[in-house]
Specification:
The chain is mainly beta. It contains 2 helices and 9 strands, in the order H-H-E-E-E-E-E-E-E-E-E. The strands form 2 sheets. It has a 6-stranded antiparallel beta sheet with strand order 3-4-8-7-6-5, with no helix packed on it. Strand 6 and strand 7 form a beta hairpin. One of its GO terms (molecular function) is metal ion binding.
C-alpha cells in the first residue's frame, strides 16, 4: 500500500479490502473518530506521519503540537502533501483536508493554531500512520 502512486484509481471494493473498517469510514466516507481515541495523540518520537490509505508523507513530527482537541494536531503539512476544500456539512462551513495523492479525508484545518502559521490541522489518527525516523 505505501508509496502507491496510483492509489486514486482503486475501486471502493479495493479500498474496503485494504483498509480497516475505521480507516475506511474516515478516509473514504469522511468520518471522524472519537476524540482522544487515537494512539497517535501520544506519539512523540521523531518521524513522519503518513496517509493510512496510500503512504503519502503528510506531516513531520516537529510540526505536531498538543491542541487539547483530542485529535493529532499539526501547524503545517509537508509541501504538496495535502489539499483542502470547503466542507458545508453539519450546518457549518469548515475547511476539509485530504491527501493530495489518494484524496482520502484526513480532517479539517482551523485558524486557531500556534505560530508560525496560526493554523491547526486537526487530523484523524485513523487516517494516518507513523514512520519513526531511522
Amino acid at each position: 500500500m505505501a508509496g502507491n502512486d496510483t492509489a486514486e484509481t482503486r475501486t471502493e471494493a479495493e479500498w474496503r479490502r485494504e483498509l480497516t473498517p475505521e480507516q475506511y469510514r474516515v478516509l473514504r466516507e469522511h468520518g471522524t473518530e472519537r476524540p482522544g481515541t487515537s494512539p497517535l495523540n501520544h506519539e512523540k518520537r521523531a518521524g513522519t506521519f503518513v496517509c493510512a490509505g496510500c503512504g503519502q508523507p503528510l506531516f513531520e513530527s516537529g510540526t505536531k503540537y498538543e491542541s487539547g482537541s483530542g485529535w493529532p494536531s499539526f501547524y503545517a503539512p509537508l509541501e504538496g502533501a495535502v489539499e483542502t476544500e470547503t466542507d458545508r456539512s453539519f450546518f457549518m462551513t469548515r475547511t476539509e483536508v485530504h491527501c493530495a495523492r489518494c484524496k482520502g479525508h484526513l480532517g479539517h484545518v482551523f485558524d486557531d493554531g500556534p505560530a508560525p502559521t496560526g493554523l491547526r490541522y486537526c487530523m484523524n489518527g485513523a487516517a494516518m500512520g507513523f514512520e519513526p525516523q531511522e
